[in-house]
Amino acid sequence: MKKFIYPDSTSLKIALTRPSMDAIDLEDLVRAIFDDVKDNGDPAIHKYTEQFDSVKLNELLVSKEEIYSAEKILSTELKVAIQLAAKNIKVFHESQHEELVKIETMPGVVCWRKSVGIEKVGLYIPGGTAPLFSTVLMLGIPASLARCKRVVMCTPSRKDGSIHPAVLFAASLVGIDEIYKIGGIQAIAGMSIGTDSIPKVHKLFGPGNQYVTAAKKYAQKFGLAIDMPAGPSELMVVADEKSNIEFIASDLLSQAEHGTDSQVLLISTDKTIIEKVEIELKKQLAALPRKSVAEKALDNSSIIVVQKDEILSIINEYAPEHLILQTSFNEFLLDGIVNAGSVFIGDFTPESAGDYASGTNHTLPTNGYAKQYSGVSLDSFVKKITFQQITEKGIQHIGPAIEEMAKEEGLEAHKNAVTVRLKSIGV
Amino acid sequence: MKKFIYPDSTSLKIALTRPSMDAIDLEDLVRAIFDDVKDNGDPAIHKYTEQFDSVKLNELLVSKEEIYSAEKILSTELKVAIQLAAKNIKVFHESQHEELVKIETMPGVVCWRKSVGIEKVGLYIPGGTAPLFSTVLMLGIPASLARCKRVVMCTPSRKDGSIHPAVLFAASLVGIDEIYKIGGIQAIAGMSIGTDSIPKVHKLFGPGNQYVTAAKKYAQKFGLAIDMPAGPSELMVVADEKSNIEFIASDLLSQAEHGTDSQVLLISTDKTIIEKVEIELKKQLAALPRKSVAEKALDNSSIIVVQKDEILSIINEYAPEHLILQTSFNEFLLDGIVNAGSVFIGDFTPESAGDYASGTNHTLPTNGYAKQYSGVSLDSFVKKITFQQITEKGIQHIGPAIEEMAKEEGLEAHKNAVTVRLKSIGV
Question: Average pLDDT for residues B117-124, to the nearest whole number?
Answer without folding.
Answer: 98
